[in-house]
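Dissemination and training. As part of the outreach component of the grant, students in the summer workshop were shown how a complex can be specified as a set of sequence lines and then modelled as a single object. The example used during the hands-on session is reproduced here so that future cohorts can follow it. Participants entered these lines:
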Amino acid sequence: MKEFAYFPGCSLEKMALSYHLSTLETTKKLGVKLQELEDWNCCGATAYSSIDELLSYTLTARNLAIAEKTGLPVVAPCSACYKNMYFTADHMKHDPDLAEHVNFALEEDNLHFSGNTTVKHLIDVYVNDIGLEELKSKVTHPLEGVRVAPYYGCQILRPRKDHEDVENPGFFEDLLSAIGAEPVNFPLKMRCCGGSLIISNRTAALSMVRNLLQSALDAKAVVIATSCPMCQLNLEVYQQQVNQEFGTNFSVPVFYFTQLIGLALGIPKKKLGFGKEFVSLSPELAQIAKG
Amino acid sequence: MIETISFNQEVENLMYAAEGEPLKTCIQCGTCSGTCPVAGYMDYTPRQIIALINEGRKEEVLNSNTFWYCASCYHCTVRCPQEINITGLMYALKRYSIWKGKYQEGLIGPTFSESFVKMIVRTGRSFEPVLAPSYIFSFNMREFLTEITGATGLMLKGRIPLLPPRIKHLDQFRRMLGRIIPVGGLE
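and obtained this result:
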């Protein structure tokens, strides 16, 4: 059985609970064991780096050190958590001065991070560790005819430069095809949802969200699939505000990719956190969820 | 003799040390500005900000909204032909302006970031309701009401916690932070 250390991050406790539930249900069904980190702390999102760089590395390193004790690769479902963990691990591995300073602070909690833990985004577990062929073989309720916009967002890949294609990746599309869905050509799939600008510059963020929703609709998608709690929040919860602001009439459901995998695996929708959304399932998906 | 360092060096010193002195290598191609999804809302585009820094025009840089409007999407960073970490530069400018206590009036970014960090220093975890006062009073009445309606909706869907979570090792956690920053200053 494949096993990973699991860092859910603050959003998944409540705001993105459906991401957490569908992650646990689908990994269980696919024979993957997730071991939640003991007493993890907030990764800091974008705020720590705005205040103090060393502080941001230290807070993330605490979680990495806890993960390292398990000896397992660590998985983060939130793209911002993932980006912070990935680069903190990378910097500490290659920068002995930074590692020494951060580890000096970690001593206070009897922790040490040597830089040897592999950091993965959750989607990578489905695409590469479970594998698309294996996933396909477990599908009982293929999402046939459901046109899905694969929304990558930013920090799932950027600013990594070691990935095959940081401008136009295809693994999200492949994943959607594996569960029988029809991934649409979504030109803005790598564009930003606005992130925390939804608080600090709402006008800009709402306009970014509007562009994304319009691009998905132009591609005739009936649902947007996301892999990040911040993207889900901006695209779905603020959709009504976009409509008020721009006089539009968007009603596009936005679900986590794990929820869609769960439906394809025949897991009851209640267990996947459906019902917490503001824009309901499209008729196509509702049909599959019922069956 | 006292050596004064240029604004360009000051900013580069605040960027991640391993990156050296990247700003002088900027060729002003404008790929960053063309890529940035927020450039249209900024006082100066990312390309202009780099030019101003290299010219030593500190006041104009610090008084601009540019770096506080950076959403950290890293799109400019992966496209820069000179491999300048432009998002890292925006963070460096955020830190510089907080450090100097100097930023454009009316911006939500600085107070929001500070409230966020204070919250983490107190509990180790994020708890959205604590953050609301840092920005909600900057909103106009319509935005204020929309925000309250939105928060109520999230509450009804069970998507906002009622009580702040906190980590178990809080004492050790705070001692750990004390080795990095003067924690007292953040309370």
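The radius of gyration of chain A is 19 Å. Students were then asked to discuss how this feature might be tested experimentally.
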